[in-house]
Amino acid sequence: MINFTQLIKKLLRGERAVTVAGYPEQNVxxxxxxxxxxxxxxxxxxxxxxxxxxxxxxxxxxxxxxxxIVHYAAEEVKLELFSSPTFDDQTGVQLTPDNYNGxxxxxxxxxxxxxSTVSVDGSPLDNSDPEHYFGSNANAQRNGNSIPEGR
Length: 151
Prior knowledge:
The protein has helices at 4-13, 23-29; strands at 34-35, 54-57, 70-72, 76-79, 82-83, 86-88, 93-95, 98-99, 111-114, 117-120, 123-124, 131-134, 141-143.
C-alpha cells in the first residue's frame, strides 16, 4: 500500500508522475462523449413561418449538453427549447448519436428524433424569451453561443 505522504514527496521531487485528463477527454476515452448533426438541406428546407421539432429523449441517466452550434442561412430564425414535450415517436426520423470513441464506444441512452409530431410543447427550458438569430438568405451564419457551456 502506498503512503500518501511519501507519494506527494516523490511527486514534488520529480520521482513520480500524475496524469490528468480533462472532462471531455476522459469521456471520449470512456466512450461516453457523443455528437449529433441535424441538417435541413436545400431538398428539405424550413419554410418561412414553419416550425421544425428536434427531440432528445433521455432516460433517468443524466445528459449534459456541452456545445450547441447553429448554422443557418436566413433572415431570421427563432429557437425555443422545451422540456417534457408530448410527441409521437412514430413520426419523423430517428437519428443515432455518433460516438467520438471508435474503439470502445458505449451505446447512448439518448434517442434523437427529427421532425416528430409534437402535440404539446412542454415547459420552456428557461423562463426567458426565445433565442433569435438574424442574418441573410445569401450568407451562411453561425452562432456557437446559443447555449451556456455545461447545461
